[in-house]
Amino acid sequence: MVALLELLKQKKKELYPRNQRKEKNNIFSKVEEVNNRKIYHTKIFNDFYTFGISKNEPTKFFISLRGIFNIEDISMFHLFSLRGDDIFLGIYYGIKKLDKAFLVRNFNKRETYTLRKCEYIEFRFKKGGVFCYLSGLHNLLKKNKVESSYYQTLLNILLELERELYAFYGKQLPEGGIIPKWIQKRQK
């Protein structure tokens, strides 16, 4: 009887993580169809972990994001190469007011704050788009953070993302990139 109980406990350990992974891997919180365009909305993340063209499948551009509560929690999604009459329209930045306030706890600094609006990056296509919500982008909009290393690192990462993504889709990137113009327009 004891051996059977131990065997069942072992089976439970093997099965439970699989079910947990399926829920965790869904990076998108909402998928909607607007005017025959499929729009994907990611959950709120902190910032980028890494990105680039997949080495195993060169028709995919992967983007990895760090979790908002745990920066070691990495989630990833792919942007695929263009098919048929689809067109890459570009990268757009913006701020969206959230339906509900989002509570964030920073355990390292022992502070709690609420997000009522969140900055996003939109990867826009003719047949759809991906809204990627990143809480770290608000640092780019604060003038007092310009000299910080996080500000400079995040700005360089975004410039590199723009450069690589526009090269992946074979489109000309505007002079100086898109993010510096958006920051200059919105920075307080």
Per-chain topology:
Layout: H1 2-24, E1 28-34, E2 37-53, E3 60-67, E4 74-80, E5 88-106, E6 111-125, E7 128-134, H2 149-168, H3 179-186
Parallel strand pairs: 2-7
Antiparallel strand pairs: 1-2, 2-3, 3-4, 5-6, 6-7
CA gyration radius, whole angstroms? 20 Å
SSE ordering: HEEEEEEEHH
The unreliable regions are: none
Beta-strand content: 35-45%
Please give the share of residues in helix: 25-40%
The termini sit apart by: 68 Å
Which geometry do the CA atoms define? globular
Q: What's the mean pLDDT score?
A: 86
> Mind summarizing the main beta sheet?
7 strands, mixed
Number of individual domains: 1
Coarse structural class:
alpha+beta
Count of helical segments?
A: 3
Number of strands: 7
Keywords: Plasmid
InterPro entries: DUF226_BOR_spp
Protein name: DUF226 domain-containing protein
Organism: Borrelia miyamotoi
Outline of this structure?
By secondary structure, the chain is an alpha+beta fold. It has helices at 2-24, 149-168, 179-186; strands at residues 28-34, 37-53, 60-67, 74-80, 88-106, 111-125, 128-134. The protein is globular and about 70 Å long.
